[in-house]
Amino acid sequence: MEMPQRKCHVVVNSTIEALVSALRDNPRGILIYNDEIDSLLSNFNRYNGSDESYFLSLFSGTPFKYTRKSNNEYIFLPNPYCSIIGTTQPGMLSSLFGGKRSQNGFSSRFLKVYPDIAAMPSWNEASMPEEILDEWERIIRQVDAVQPPAGQEGKINPFELFFSPAAKQRLIRWKNEVNSCVYVESESEAEKALCGKLETYLIRFCLVIQVMRGICGEADMNEIDEESADRAIRLTEYFRAMESRIAPEMEVGVLDQRHTELLSLLPSSFTTSEAVGIGKRIGLSESTVKRFLREGAREFIRKEAHGHYCKI
After folding, report:
1. What is the pLDDT of residues 219-263, one digit of tens each?
2. 181: Cα separation from own chain's centroid
3. pTM (2 decimals)?
4. Distance of CA 151 to the CA centre of its chain
5. Which pLDDT belongs to residue 296?
6. Architecture in CATH of 260-311
7. How far is residue 81 CA from its own chain's centroid?
8. Highest mean pLDDT range out of 14-28, 64-78, 93-107, 208-222?
9. What is the model's pLDDT at position 153?
């Protein structure tokens, strides 16, 4: 008998083996939801050292081959698609997305939302109107009901939405006049990596917005029009602004206030004695400064030679 396939949208168990099975059984894609995204990212590379590299390629929908040694099962995923949603605390940003992950493009694959909240919201008895919830559920169910044409052996053949000439020109202007300029003027490798990923997200936003507008009766779904392109650009720039707010948290999130102050006062290149002298001015002992250089600043300071350092 043929083993039944489990259809689902949301996956909680996010080990690579479980993820591959879910992607095989759900060729239209899945969602990994982690209330605390630390539980997902902290387990990367825990067993075989390849989880993070797999997720790096999964972002681009790279075809994936997987063999289960336990039962000699061979799985080929021609068009894998997986979204990840989760939350974390600002103090965790540096350990989750800083350091190497901000340089290799891993961090920029995640769209981040960091609202400016000065105070906790007040409690009240207001609730979301039922008609709004019902309308949203109807829209999402209609999106899910859109069926691409089936190919041979029941396989799904994706269908394409092309850009209208006006939409294409709008995106080209954004690319040349905005994103390319940010890339050239930036001295941050993390910001340069973000520019590349935002171009990918911009195209995806165009598709999502056009489909949602089509479902809601605001537009056709035979091509991506200029209105959807313009909205996608605004959304892309929103996430660029969010990333700029989060960047300082990722750079100094693991340091306490005194060490952050020390790091900001150090020149780009310095010796141990210079660091000790600056530390004394702000109330840090010699042993504290040396321990910071030796153990606590690997993501921010690189040792060039004995007694000589430079800021990364």
Report:
1. 998 999 999 999 999 999 999 999 888 877 776 544 556 777 888
2. 22
3. 0.74
4. 32
5. 59
6. Orthogonal Bundle (1.10)
7. 14
8. 208-222
9. 60
- Cα(262)–Cα(251) distance, integer angstroms: 14
Q: How far, in Å, CA of 225 to CA of 258, rounded?
A: 52
Q: Is 85 helix (H, G, I), strand (E, B) or coil?
A: strand
Q: Domain locations in the chain?
A: 10-87, 159-252, 260-311
Report H helices in the chain. 16-25, 38-41, 51-58, 93-97, 100-103, 130-145, 165-174, 180-185, 189-215, 226-252, 257-265, 272-281, 286-291
The answer to whether residues 278 and 268 touch, using CB atoms and an 8 Å cutoff, is no
pLDDT above 70 for 89:
yes
Helices 189-215 + 226-252 axis angle, to 10: 140
Nearest to 21 by CA among 77, 62, 63: 77
Report which of 49, 98, 70, 80 is spatially closest to residue 253, judged by C-alpha positions.
98
Q: What are phi and psi of 311, to 5 degrees?
A: -80, 135
Find tokens 């210079």 and name the residue: 274
